[in-house]
Design goal:
Blueprint lengths: L18 H13 L24 E7 L9 E4 L5 E4 L6 E2 L3 E8 L5 E7 L1 H13 L5 E8 L5 E7 L11 E4 L5 H17 L11 E3 L4 E3 L19
Parallel strand pairs: 5-10
Antiparallel strand pairs: 1-4, 1-7, 2-3, 5-6, 6-9, 7-8, 10-11
Amino acid sequence: MIAIALRTMGVAPGTINLFLVCAGLLFAPALALPVAAADTPGATTAKPKKASSRLGAIKLHIETTDDGNGPKAEVIRSRPQIVPIQKVPFFDERDVAMAEIVETPDGGFVVQIDSTEHGRNALEMTTVSANGRRIAIYGQWTTDDEATGSRWVAAPLIRTPVRNGSLRFSVDCDRDEARMWVDGLNNVAIKLKNQAKGKQSSTKNQQGSPKKNPVNSTSTAGDLINKYSRP
C-alpha cells in the first residue's frame, strides 16, 4: 500500500457528515429515480451523467486505539482490513483545492489531492502527530447513471511528515470510479472557490505534465450545493 501524508487538527464544526448537508438535495433524489424495465414499451434509460454535473466528497479519519466501542472502517476489498477510527473526520472536501488522477509507469494510477491553505496546515500537523498510524479514507461520488458510489477506498500508513499539502495515494477503485470521484471533487472545489474555473487538470502522468481535462469549467453541479464555509 502506498503511504500517503494526510493531516489532522482540531475538528472544525460542521465536518461531521458534511456531505449529508447536500445529500438530501443531490444523492437521495438520484437514488429514488424510477427504473423502467428494458422490455417495457416506451422504456427509457438514464442518460450518462456529465463530468460537469458530478459531485464528490472525501472524509479522512485518523486511526485510533480500539476500545471495542468506537467506529471502524473496513478497507481494501481484496484484502479486507479493519481500522478503528476516530468518529469525526479531520479532512473533508472543503480542504480540497484540486483532485487529479496520476498515471504511474506500470500502467496503473494513483489519486492526488492538493489541499487548500487550511488543508496544508492541517496536513502537516497530522503527519507529525500521527506518524505511524493509518488514515482511513472514505470517498463518495455521483455515478454516470445518476446513482451514488461510496466506500472506504484506502488506509495508508503515515511514515513521514508532508509539508507541501499534496496527498497522493492508491485507491480501491477502478479507473472509471476514480474519474467520477475526481471530477466530483473538482466541481465542489470550484463551487467553494478553492479552485479557479478552468484551472483544473484531472489527469497527469507521474512527472506532472497534464494529459487531459474532462471537467467542464462552467460546471453547474455546484449550483445544487448549499453555500457553506468553515468557521
